[in-house]
Design a protein that fits this description.
Layout lengths: L1 E6 L2 E4 L4 E9 L6 E7 L5 E8 L7 E2 L7 E6 L4 E6 L8 E8 L12 E2 L3 E6 L1
Length: 124
């Protein structure tokens, strides 16, 4: 069992920056890839960024955030981060962290473990 808990959401002005955190616990050694997703009202979740657990390898970003987002991990603290700059109103969403046992970069790799989400609201 893997447990994920997001924090760091809130309300910010457009153009501002935000750091989301995801605390990871449990059988984390069984996880190969970690990711951030987001969901908008009335829609499904979309991938935002992903990386291999423990670091290394290539990171992946959605085109909508590429150049504005950075995913990272603190392996000692078992925390994953999402730094986002130049936030836009269209970034307003519920953000989730997720984990999967396979190393595939695909957003549809079968992410089984999810946090409860943290709301981000960007005002213009």
């Amino acid at each position: 069992q893997v447990r994920l808990e997001e924090s760091g959401g809130g309300s910010i002005q457009a153009g501002g920056s935000l750091v989301l955190s995801c605390a990871i616990s449990g059988d984390i050694d069984k996880m190969s890839r970690m990711a951030w997703f987001r969901s908008f009202p009335g829609t499904g979740r979309e991938g935002v960024a992903s990386m291999l657990r423990g670091g290394g390898g290539q990171t992946y970003y959605a085109s909508s955030v590429k150049g504005r987002a950075t995913i990272s991990q603190d392996n000692e603290k078992n925390v994953m981060y999402l730094h986002m700059n130049n936030m836009k109103p269209e970034d307003s969403a519920m953000y989730f962290c997720a984990a999967v046992t396979v190393a595939s970069w695909s957003w549809h790799a079968g992410y089984k473990y999810w946090g409860q989400g943290t709301q981000v609201t960007v005002s213009s």
